[in-house]
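Entry 14. Structure prediction run on the chain below.
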Amino acid sequence: MSAIGKDVVNFRRMTSSDIDAILILIGKITAEKTHVTYRDLAANDPGGPLDLSLVAEAKGQIIGFIIARLEFVYIPFVEVCLVHAVVVDPEYQRRHIGSALIKELLDRCYLGRINTIRTLVRQDDDELRSFIEHLGFHPSNISNWDKTFERWIE
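Output returned:
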């Protein structure tokens, strides 16, 4: 338990019962409609053996979360905690809750002997890049390559 600002913030593993609150929080931070659905989040098996996701709670409400999974990547396979998203309620931003979520994840990975934590950041997102560099992340020696489609077949 840690105090951040005026509120006490608790961190715990995410469970499937958190999905509705997480979707509401995602809606608060996105200007456009998100394509993330209940089914998408449930498919990640929150709280399951490969899930490392956490939530931050204050006053009984989820105010932030981190979606992270244990992945086996590259050849030879390497065990990696892959951070997919860190989200903090706009009312609680700038109180170091995102940093605290990352630190909590790092502590849990250390205890679980997972020695690589990886996150993906857009090259032009200077604010996010600065944030993760401040937390001790550095560019990987693995390059990310994408193939995209101009539009979906309807």
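The beta strands are 2-4, 7-13, 54-58, 61-73, 78-88, 117-119.
Filed with the rest of this week's runs.
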